[in-house]
């Protein structure tokens, strides 16, 4: 009896375990009535390519191009400096101008609206249209799913930001949690931001209590622990780690030992900061040698015209931010040091994206310390006085909404105009990229100027690993990857960029890039306008879309958008506007949705998340 049971179980295994990777393979043995008349067959186990590298993606939050010392900023980031000096700096890399769209595009290698994340996965900022659902379709698989199906272990720590609010409870469903998108281990938070000492913390499929330490410290311990346990169990097996701290998104919270390192460092103000950073950037070669600064953004006053108490307050806000970024670099350094000490670093691809968008304008004009129910309800003077009275709380655990003023946002975006959310401007979309791979990159400290976008990181990684994008994941046919690999640029600084066209859109602000030319339209109202006018009966303008003014720039000659050529080349502008419309149609961008639609509740009239279809037809690039 026992023999028959064992033989029957073996036969069941033979007839069911016939999946290699993600493709069903027909049983290739022979099944007879008895074991004696049968021929066993086992599918080959899934294994990664020979000597496949480990992969670490590092994605920071709300960091402008001119913040980190790696790209000329005045905030010290020695770990990133070392990775860049021993790898490559990509100076023409772009994100989606806000967090969730960037993350969705990064993880899938496809444009954000195309995968349903044109806004956020939050109920308040998603909508019942294919490009706005806040739900990544199953036919748009993630890098974690691809690598997992090719023999990698997959881990994620930090900010995820792509789980719909109504599914982010311990009751699930969990298919849109990290574990449902290919990550075998996850430790972090599901939303867009969280308190760094009292985070809304999740481990795998359950919320847990924090231990009271800074979140960066906790996620770094977890990342190291995941790798350590995996390598003990399967030495040499490759892993993929997605390390995405909430840093340095607000609230800016960090131990005084880091923020106090910058005491007095920013007393000269944001105008002088920009001048110093531009000089550093020219010296490093991360901007053209003839680069000049654009004028200050609207609403940013000259530092020299500020009274002494405002200078004191604003400088302290920046000290906290700087300390927070340096501390984040320190935590990444712990991870890199572990990889080096365990002889894993040489065969590890490390991709560092310093920011998922430009520096944040969400600190408003005075900076913020207020609880959320006060923001927008105080006059500018009241807000300033409140912040000044709490200056000693800036950066500490009790500073639960700490965010710096607008002037520092532009300063840390040097040399660009505008900031986060402004998909029309380089200040919203232009971020530093570092690629480090000792065994695969010959040149150390090289500069790469090819145009690239966040959707390019996935295909680049697949090329580095030696894996092709799968035709199916879990037997579900997969849509086309839209990004372009940067692989050929790793050891050829002169390689031609393959990424020629790219559209951008965040809540009305929009632009289109094509072969060095860019057409862009700012759009108002935006979040700042809403805060300024809250409670005044502001209703917006029903004809606001038609009133947006398009601008035209030749980025080949004017990389930071100082000279608007719209009047000089009207035909070029019209051609690019037409191209934007074509890309918008192809990528599910329409209908246009902006902040007014969110605040005036013009979406969610028939909200039925359970019946929303999450698979869309393939349309290619």
How would you characterize the overall build of this protein?
With 621 residues, the chain is of the alpha/beta class. The protein folds into two domains: 2-34, no CATH class; 54-611, Alkaline Phosphatase, subunit A (3-Layer(aba) Sandwich), CATH 3.40.720. 28% of the residues lie in helices and 13% in strands. A hairpin with a 2-residue loop joins strand 7 and strand 8 (206-207).
**How many domains would you count in the coordinates?**
2
What's the Cα radius of gyration?
A: 25 Å
Residues in helices, as a percent range:
25-40%
The termini sit apart by 59 Å
Pfam families: Sulfatase
Domain Sulfatase N-terminal: 53-467
Protein name: Arylsulfatase
Family: Belongs to the sulfatase family.
Labels describing this entry:
Alkaline Phosphatase, subunit A; eleven-stranded mixed beta sheet; 19 strands; 13% strand; Sulfatase_CS
Topology:
Elements: H1 2-16, E1 19-20, E2 23-24, E3 54-59, H2 78-85, E4 88-94, H3 99-108, H4 143-148, E5 153-159, E6 185-189, E7 202-203, E8 206-207, H5 215-233, E9 239-244, H6 256-259, H7 270-284, H8 308-341, E10 348-353, H9 380-389, H10 406-412, H11 426-429, E11 430-436, E12 446-448, E13 452-453, H12 457-465, E14 472-473, E15 476-477, E16 501-506, E17 509-514, E18 517-521, H13 527-533, H14 544-547, E19 550-554, H15 570-586, H16 595-599
Parallel strand pairs: 3-9, 3-10, 4-12, 4-13, 5-6, 5-9
Antiparallel strand pairs: 1-2, 4-11, 6-7, 7-8, 10-11, 14-15, 16-17, 17-18, 18-19
Helix pairs in contact: 5-8, 7-10
InterPro entries: Alkaline_phosphatase_core_sf, Sulfatase, Sulfatase_CS, Sulfatase_N
Signal peptide: 1-21
Keywords: Calcium, Hydrolase, Metal-binding, Signal
